[in-house]
Fold Methyltransferase domain-containing protein.
Amino acid sequence: MEPAVEPAPEPVRGPATGPGLNTAVERYYDITLDLYEDLWGEHVHHGYWDEGQTPARDGADRHAATDRLVRELVTHAAVPAGAHVLDVGCGIGGPALHLAGPHGCTVEGVTLSARQAARANEKARAAGLAHRARFHRQDALSTGHPDDTFDVVWAMESLMHLDDRPAFFSEAHRLLRPGGTLAVATWAVRDGALDPGEQELVRQILQHQVMPDFSSLEEHERLARAAGFTDVTTADWSTAVANSWDPSFARVPHLDGGPATMRDLARTRGVDVLGFFHAGPLMKKGFDTGVITYGALRAVKPHRP
């Protein structure tokens, strides 16, 4: 008799799911664009440090650490120089401009935020890279590109906003040329069941970051294989990126005006903007307890027989 297989635990779900998710994500990044850029610069994602380093002592500063994360994913995924790249969730273009600049790639970036796409195109023009990096307001699951278009599909910290991750892996497989590479860096959750306190922590993070749920790094690997990818490799970068939520690095300010200033900000931009200020302590606790993880994935679309 075959042993019983334990069912996979149900994921913790945030409030932003279903048909309204894309609208909620678009609004969040539209209203926080200047906050992220003013505080974090061109890279709206985690930084990467060597073991034992911290930004407060001997570690890299924000710009160097976030730039290194891009280079680490380029290395992990073996992104070829000069590749034709689709950047899914391109933000304001930081990683794409690295790919188009030092790496010589041609990049099409897509984001749900029209303000992000416009800012990324401004930055590409300022850098003299508009001929190799273009940015559009588009849903990553319906870009309209034909089959076998790209050498690389790049997704840096964007999968957490997708409600249908199997559809993403299938669409990435469709868009890649045979032999093409999928490169992913993503927030994730510890594999396995969470206790009630851990579930509540995850629920709060999802709420404030406008995300439907988290998948574990192991689940990302399973989804890639199910979509037809081969040569799937993953790396757990949780320890390397955890410093990103140290207060001295995250630079999420405690506004001098206190509650009154926060109320004014919510009144002018909408209450969703307050999630920007709540995220730091929650994410730090997530990494400190091992509930929140972070990983990279590389997968290859096989050549046709």
